[in-house]
């Protein structure tokens, strides 16, 4: 039977009872699931005028139909909401970044039970303990059990009939002392099951029972002068103590407790869970949630407490958190500790959460393309608001004021964009004045971009110290764009980064990728300016001597250079060779000039 769907105009018909509600879009796709003490009041709140959150406004604009399910209690609403989110993964609900199948330890339902790890849970096959959030932690438990007890690892069918008929022989495990040979009737079923019973106590976290058992047997062996047996039991007791000391939290007065902590930002939330039994951590798990709306930390943590306690089969009567939460759980104490050992537990949990977040961010950066990573590093080093995908760098070049030129090189996404490089002849400056030249080229560059409605760069880099930087800033001020474009100067000698109006330079780590990128920009601008300057000097000196010949114009000079390639070869050419290019009259003028 299909559920009745309601439109926005029918919200008044929704019930004032606890339950869950579902939003659908025009295509009939489920986009959000929520829970509420009163379905009518909660759904109505989405359509109120006070709604200012952009994400929620966008979700509401997509709602075409509403369904609801009434439940008996708020706790049932918690569970139903959780199951629907995990099953359907609606667009606007949080995304649980966790698709792992957790391992369990199984004690098999067979004669002479086996203890093994598995990710497949089939209740008919045995009793399962877990799940274990860490494979390493699970393996530590298995190694401990095999060190303490002689439990078989084979899959033989050890029925009474098979053993009585002598169907099996002992294997290497028997000879090295890891098994007592129940397959060959060398160990009784009662003796074997006693070991299994002790192993189950460890799997349940009842280490004190096992510890007392080993202590009693060790003392009894010592009283009976069975010192070799007493030493073996002591070694096993030491193993047990060592295992517990690795996971001891604060003290054994804290018995059965669940610890949940959360830290979050605008996009993600990270939740850590510690399950503590008899003073030891038996489960630790951290998960990441992708936030879709502006969910608050209390709501997120409440949801995940229900989910994680169900997943890890926790029945602890006390829950410790780092933020206040409201949970419809009977006979469960919610604690927000301020001091003492329980406060230390929340600090330990938060520490795990922060470490997990750091690992995730580091992992995300490592998957980023190299150029994005470098630009992000540069953004952080220079404290820029935007990622500097478009960077322009300026440099001047002149020798004692002759042929003054400037260059602008452009990098896009951390790479040279040579089509956007620009060369500048200095037009308004007389003599060697780097500051005035820098003012001119910046003014001309950005005046043109503004007039043509072209996008301005994300960062301007000036090759030079504070003087050149101030000149460039004056140009931006004249154009009324100062402050709209981040601008820095980079000095060659100590690789110092200067900000406008800041007397102290910034020193970036010499090994930083961002400094390497700035050096590449500066070196490329310098190379481009020097090359342009040399070409200008060569061009001017190349023609200067031919320009001195009276009666020879620029077209004749171009013909001569096109044919002979250089002034030197023009000088060395014979009269006849010159006549073939420019005629006899002009050839005579050229020859006479060089002869004199």
From TrEMBL:
Q: Which domain of life is it from?
A: Bacteria
Q: Which NCBIfam families does the annotation name?
A: uvrC (TIGR00194)
The protein's UniProt keywords, in alphabetical order, are: Coiled coil, Cytoplasm, DNA damage, DNA excision, DNA repair, Excision nuclease, SOS response
Protein name (record): UvrABC system protein C
| Subunit organization | Interacts with UvrB in an incision complex.
> Taxonomic lineage per UniProt?
Bacteria, Pseudomonadati, Bacteroidota, Cytophagia, Cytophagales
Main localization category: cytoplasm
| Domain spans labelled GIY-YIG | 16-94
Q: Where in the cell is it found?
A: Cytoplasm
Q: Which InterPro entries match?
A: GIY-YIG_endonuc, GIY-YIG_endonuc_sf, GIY-YIG_UvrC_Cho, RuvA_2-like, UVR_dom, UVR_dom_sf, UvrABC_protein_C, UvrC
């Amino acid at each position: 039977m299909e559920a009745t769907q309601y439109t926005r105009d029918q919200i008044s018909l929704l019930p004032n009872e606890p339950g869950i509600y579902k939003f659908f879009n025009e295509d009939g796709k489920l986009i959000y699931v929520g829970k509420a003490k009163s379905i009518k009041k909660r759904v109505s709140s989405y359509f109120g005028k006070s709604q200012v959150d952009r994400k929620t406004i966008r979700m509401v604009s997509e709602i075409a139909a509403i369904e609801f399910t009434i439940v008996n209690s708020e706790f049932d609403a918690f569970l139903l909401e959780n199951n629907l989110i995990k099953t359907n993964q609606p667009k606007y609900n949080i995304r649980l970044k966790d698709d792992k199948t957790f391992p369990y330890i199984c004690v098999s339902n067979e004669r002479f039970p086996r203890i093994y790890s598995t990710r497949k849970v089939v209740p008919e096959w045995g009793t399962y303990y877990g799940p274990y959030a860490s494979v390493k932690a699970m393996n530590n438990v298995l190694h401990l059990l095999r060190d303490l007890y002689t439990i078989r690892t084979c899959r033989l069918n050890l029925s009474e009939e098979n053993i009585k008929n002598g169907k099996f022989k002992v294997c290497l495990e028997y000879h090295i002392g890891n098994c007592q040979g129940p397959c060959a009737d060398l160990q009784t079923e009662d003796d074997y099951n006693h070991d299994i019973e002790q192993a189950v106590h460890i799997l349940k976290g009842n280490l004190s029972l096992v510890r007392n058992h080993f202590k009693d047997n060790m003392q009894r062996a010592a009283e009976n002068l069975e010192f070799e047996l007493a030493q073996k039991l002591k070694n096993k007791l030491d193993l047990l103590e060592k295992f517990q000391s690795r996971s001891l939290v604060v003290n054994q007065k804290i018995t059965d407790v669940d610890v949940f902590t959360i830290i979050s930002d605008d996009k993600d939330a990270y939740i850590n869970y510690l399950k503590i039994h008899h003073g030891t951590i038996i489960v630790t798990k951290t998960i990441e949630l992708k936030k879709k709306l502006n969910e608050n930390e209390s709501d997120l943590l409440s949801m995940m407490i229900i989910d994680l306690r169900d997943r890890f089969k926790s029945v602890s009567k006390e829950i410790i958190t780092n933020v206040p939460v409201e949970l419809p759980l009977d006979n469960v104490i919610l604690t927000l500790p301020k001091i003492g050992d329980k406060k230390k537990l929340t600090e330990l949990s938060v520490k795990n959460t922060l470490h997990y977040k750091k690992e995730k961010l580091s992992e995300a950066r490592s998957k980023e393309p190299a150029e994005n990573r470098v630009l992000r590093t540069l953004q952080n080093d220079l404290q820029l608001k935007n990622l500097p995908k478009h960077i322009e760098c300026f440099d001047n070049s002149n020798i004692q004021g002759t042929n003054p030129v400037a260059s602008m090189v452009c990098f896009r996404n951390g790479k040279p964009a040579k089509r956007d490089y620009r060369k500048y002849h200095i037009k308004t400056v007389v003599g060697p004045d780097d500051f005035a030249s820098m003012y001119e080229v910046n003014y001309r560059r950005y005046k043109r971009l503004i007039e043509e409605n072209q996008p301005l760069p994300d960062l301007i880099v000036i090759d030079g110290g504070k003087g050149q930087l101030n000149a460039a800033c004056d140009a931006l001020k004249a154009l009324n764009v100062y402050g709209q474009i981040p601008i820095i100067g980079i000095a060659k000698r100590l690789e110092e980064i200067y900000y406008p109006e800041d007397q102290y330079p910034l020193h970036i780590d010499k090994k930083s990728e961002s400094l390497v990128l700035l050096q590449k920009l500066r070196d490329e601008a310098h190379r481009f300016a020097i090359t342009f300057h040399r070409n200008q000097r060569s061009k001017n000196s190349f023609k200067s001597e031919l320009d001195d010949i009276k009666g020879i114009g620029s077209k004749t000079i171009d013909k001569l250079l096109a044919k002979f390639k250089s002034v030197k070869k023009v000088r060395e050419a014979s009269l006849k060779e010159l006549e073939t290019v420019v005629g006899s009259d002009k050839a005579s003028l050229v020859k006479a000039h060089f002869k004199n």
